[in-house]
Amino acid sequence: MIKQKKEISLAERPIGIFDSGIGGLTVFKEIRKVLPHENLIYLGDTARVPYGTKSPEVIRQYSEINVRFLIEKGVKVVVVACNTASAAAIDHLKEHFPDIVVLGVIAPVVENLIKLDHVQKVGIIGTATTIRSGAYQRAIQDKIRVDILVQACPLFVPLVEEGILDHPLTMQAIDYYLAGIKKAGVDTLILGCTHYPLLVRPLDYYFNHRVRIMDSAYYTARELKKMLADGRVTNPSRDPGTESFFVTDSVDTFRHTGELFLERPLTIIEHV
What we know:
Layout: E1 15-19, H1 25-34, E2 40-44, H2 56-72, E3 77-80, H3 83-96, E4 101-103, H4 106-113, E5 121-126, H5 128-133, H6 135-141, E6 147-152, H7 156-161, H8 168-184, E7 188-192, H9 200-206, E8 212-215, H10 216-230, E9 243-247, H11 251-262, E10 269-271
Helix pairs in contact: 1-10, 2-3, 4-6, 4-10
């Protein structure tokens, strides 16, 4: 007698996460912290990284391909773990994939920003495309009236990926980009790139521990947990969730840098 494969429920399906490359692993790490029993699928589009220097049209095209891949894997929700793709493509993705929830990393930060007290001057740092898009600026100005200062910091990504974190070179780059924001006296700094959480310590030191630093990975993970609970699609399993990693370029490069991000070994990574 042939045993029929059990149909899994929506709640048991995996969560799909994609990024242009490696930075989205900061979001993956936070999701794993708050949702230990969920099965996670991560797609890093490492063959076409970086998205931060590409046009919005190209970013939307790449993002659509990524979502299709994750849907084919049977995910119940897609997390766009990339500020650039969230800025350029989130509305496009929601329109093109109405049957699945697509969560970006910008809205969760803004929703938490407006709950804070004494917010007057907000600094936003990110890739050139994220900053040029104005996505953070519009989202904030739609909610509250504050002064906003923005700065693209393109050197931060290679520094992070090389593991150059607590180093004079990093402090020089931080001062090069952020001297104006520091002088302006911002009270809150939004990390508008998923690589930047690895720079929290030197950034906090640079601002003399006087600036609130908002990490999009942290807030996105908690918004996802709330969404799953509200929709009653949290995985009921008590077993540790599974993890699958897919990349569009070198597996070895992803593994090396991914272990720096996650602070643990990565074993099964598949090239697609």
